[in-house]
Amino acid sequence: MTSKKLNMKEKYSLLTRDLEWEYSYRDYEEIFKQESFEGIKITDWSKWEDPFRLTMDSYWKYQAEKEKKLYAIFDAFAQNNGQQNVTDARYVNAIKLFLTGVSPLEYQAYNGFAHTGRQFGGVGARVACQMQALDELRHVQTQIHAMSHYNKHFDGFQDFPHMHDRVWYLSVPKSFFDDARSAGPFEFMVAIGFSFEYVLTNLLFVPFMSGAAYNGDMATVTFGFSAQSDEARHMTLGLEIIKFLLEQHPDNVPIVQRWINKWLWRGYRVLTLVAMMMDYMLPNKVMSWQESFEVYFEEAATSLFKDLARYGIEMPDYAADAIAEKEHLSHQAWSIFYNYGHAAAFHTWMPTDQEMDWLSEKYPNTFDKYYRPRYEKWREMEEAGERFYNPTLPMLCQTCQIPMGFTDMENPTMTSYRQSVYDGERYNFCSNGCKDIFDYEPEKYVQAWLPVHQIYQGNCGGAEMEDVLGEYYRINLGTDNLDFHGSPDEARWNAWHNLQPAEDKLKKAS
Amino acid sequence: MSIEIKTSTLEPIRHTFEHTKRRFGDKPASRYQEASYDIAPEKNFHYRPMWQPDKLLNDSSRTAIVMEDWYAYRDPRQYYYGTYVQARAKLQEVTESNYAFFDKRGFADRMSDEVKAKIIRCLVPLRHMELGANMNNVLCCAYGTSTVLTQAFLYNGMDRLGIAQYLSRIGLLLDGNSTDGLAKAKEHWMTDSAWQGLRRYTENTLVVEDWFEVFIAQDVVLDTLIYDLMYRQFDEKITEEGGSDLAMLIEFMQEWHKDNSRWVDATLKSTVAESEHNKELIGRWVADWQEKAVADMAPLAEIAVGEEAVNASVEVLNKRLAKAGL
């Protein structure tokens, strides 16, 4: 008997789509309970185009090969104490931010895609989500393993899941993902699959990995390369979900548009942490936040939304607001963290002269005018032995949960401030985007677990800051936090390299 | 004699993460431990899920089973993603060469039409049931508590998709890719009276909300019975009837079931040992689902193997339950 040849598409369809059957002992709605409550109309799941046609046997094979190579590098890195080869110990704070702020999001993505991987009525969409769930689990676990060795030689990594559930600035990424996971399955896909993984991934995942590459961090960058093909799969899934929803029914268009508006703003606000990481935390800079924003958001999003115009989707609201902030965002964010350097789980510092010059060059319209004078003042204070720490607690935006430190872009000395009243209570916002998101679903956003409110209400270990930071957050005061200069991290680094304090080294280098 | 390369040694400031240290002591932790314990979010969720407003996002009350510590479990295989995919890659490599060999030697042609028809009728429809198993295990992953459990559920769920795909390939191998075999198998699944009980059972599991009950109905009761019936008894029977080459094509399922059972048994045992409450509840679920499963699989068992087949599988299940303390 000679066998008939089946092409890839036919074969994948027989091995996946054809497994589905029409239920007759139970109703479809009982099995897929969540498919209709968001108002999305699906008329025909068979129109779903599989974004990647990967059967499980190939998946195991390819992924196992990648894992084998990755762990060989992790082993070599640990055996040779590769942490000694990063550009400067300050760099390590960027990956502390990553492990406490981003890796737990990979975990949440694992949860969220498992949820949609069960809830969608179309087997093609379900299987694609399940594979992404598995990949996301891979990412959180390999990130933990990549940073496990750093944890043995630097402070601030050691309690990352505990901190993610509690620490004030980590509620920014946490609430973002909680928001997406608590939404319906289609909104989750637009929020994470499309807005986050497709539109914004080059501004989140990539800068950290490029930062690792530029700063001699072999473990993290190897993870980055290894995850690249997973990320490419996730991007095709994100794009497919949008096209599928828009093609299924015209009534889906306004719902999807509203979700895109919301989630690009919500995601962009989380990127504040990346902006400051890029401009301030990398001893060897990859590019400025502004440059990266222009390439990966302004240019890429413009061409993407040109493509989506034929479905009736427009450039999201607030894009102009984000663009207006690009020359300020990283500086304002770093100032907030420098101010609250005693309450963070990583070190902060003032840029060196050389770094200030780089910032002037990259931000000619804003840095010298608004930020350099402030930094010079803080540096003087530090030199006089009075390093500035802000002892008060900041007010947080009800939606994005970032301290209300952003200014009006027309007038960068005035704090931007919006308010809404709901059910007799007043709520504060940092921006139009955050206010509109609240106003559309106030019953959701009033639930937010705002860290500062919680401290005031006595839910975070006590009334004294030491209780909150030490007991509740489990930050080791004076070890994990405060200025980099004088930290145990710095002392160890200098001992490894027979160095004077890092500033002297940098001065000499320049 | 041994040679010794000198490397610079640096005294670490700690041996592992604080959460692994709290659980396992102040010593270097294994990769399985660092990847599996205490990494799921537990507290201070910001919003109630719109799809289930009476629960938190991660909420251990999605099952009636109660555990003081949901990380009391341990996967005896110590699978985290890396070890999982590498174990499956090894198994698939052997399987791939088996399938290629079967195809190259034209073993399908050595089987009689009766044997082929029997495989299409009795074995290949399981591909649909495996899809149900995929959905059930993914549900346990999505709504279960603690990574040490949920990751194993996802591995199981993906394994079931893989098995459904291998079963589909058996259907294709038997008829030279004409796809008639798969169409016939689906027809059996949909209308053949031998299959209707099992299809009803599967559809009924898909509406159960308590994820631990889903685990009992699917992974403990149904899988134990069906894997014994089909991959042990049917394998022997079809060999007697001249279809011994099928063994090459179902080795994956047999090896997988052995591997997966180690985890199922360990999970069941730890949960039962936790409390009388758990033991009593699981006992009730097992009794309910077992009664249905035995009745629902009887017509298939009779056609596939013979009259005594069901009882033999029930015996295997009972032994397994006894081992877990039930």
From TrEMBL, chain A:
UniProt key word ATP-binding: no
Residues forming coiled coils: none
Alphabetized GO MF terms: monooxygenase activity
The organism's place on the tree of life at top rank: Bacteria
InterPro entries named in the record: Ferritin-like_SF (IPR009078), Phenol_Hydrox (IPR003430), RNR-like (IPR012348), YHS_dom (IPR007029)
Keywords: Monooxygenase, Oxidoreductase
Domain YHS: 415-449
Native organism: Pseudohalioglobus lutimaris
Record's protein name: Phenol 2-monooxygenase
Pfam family, one: YHS
Keyword Plastid: no
From TrEMBL, chain B:
InterPro entries per UniProt: Ferritin-like_SF, MP_mOase_hydro, Phenol_Hydrox, RNR-like
UniProt entry keywords in alphabetical sequence: Monooxygenase, Oxidoreductase
Gene Ontology molecular function, alphabetical: oxidoreductase activity, acting on paired donors, with incorporation or reduction of molecular oxygen, NAD(P)H as one donor, and incorporation of one atom of oxygen
Oxidoreductase among keywords: yes
Annotated protein name in UniProt: Phenol hydroxylase
Organism: Pseudohalioglobus lutimaris
